[in-house]
């Protein structure tokens, strides 16, 4: 803050305050910081929501193994695994998960569970959707380049 003095009728009175230029410099600095910080914050939010998909898929895989131990088959019906709906929606609603037959093409011997992005999480285009299979393999689907011929390698650091 600059202190300016002005001579008025022979006495000096201090004028205290900010000039328009000083205020505009501060506004410009705040705008630059916001332009950098807000996208970084939003990207971090999307990244932290990925754990919701991962934990849901690992829960499904564990329940599938228990179901297989009792019934000698896997299932595509999430309600048979104890979930309230088929497909099951994650705790905060950012992912929807379901299972299909795995590599063998027979749900009795293998499964692949996929957590598909929903709502605001569809903005997470870096990792795409998450998968886990009956062998415990973790993977990604619908990530950038997955539909190329040949498919691009999945992005690192998602699982």
Automatic annotation (TrEMBL):
**Region Disordered: start and end of each range?**
138-159
The record, for Pfam families, names: ComP_DUS, N_methyl
Q: Which Gene3D superfamilies match?
A: Glycoprotein, Type 4 Pilin (3.30.700.10)
Tell me the keywords, alphabetical order.
Membrane, Methylation, Transmembrane, Transmembrane helix
In the UniProt record, the signal sequence range is none
Kindly give the InterPro entries that the UniProt entry links to this protein: Bac_GSPG_pilin, N_methyl_site, PilE-like, Pilin-like
> What are the transmembrane regions?
15-41
The name this protein goes by in its record? Prepilin-type N-terminal cleavage/methylation domain-containing protein
Traced from the root, the source organism's taxonomic lineage reads: Bacteria, Pseudomonadati, Pseudomonadota, Gammaproteobacteria, Chromatiales
């Amino acid at each position: 803050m600059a202190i300016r003095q002005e001579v008025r009728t022979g006495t000096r009175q201090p004028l205290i305050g900010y000039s328009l230029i000083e205020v505009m410099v501060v506004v410009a600095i705040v705008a630059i910081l916001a332009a950098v910080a807000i996208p970084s914050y939003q990207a971090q939010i999307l990244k932290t929501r990925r754990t919701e998909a991962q934990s849901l898929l690992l829960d499904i895989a564990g329940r599938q193994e228990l179901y297989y131990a009792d019934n000698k088959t896997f299932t595509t019906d999430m309600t048979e695994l104890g979930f309230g709906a088929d497909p099951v929606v994650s705790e905060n609603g950012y992912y929807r998960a379901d299972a299909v037959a795995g590599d063998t093409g027979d749900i009795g011997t293998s499964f692949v569970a996929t957590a598909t992005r929903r709502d605001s999480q569809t903005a997470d285009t870096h990792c795409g959707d998450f998968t886990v299979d009956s062998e415990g393999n973790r993977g990604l689907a619908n990530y950038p380049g997955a539909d190329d011929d040949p498919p691009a390698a999945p992005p690192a650091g998602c699982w």
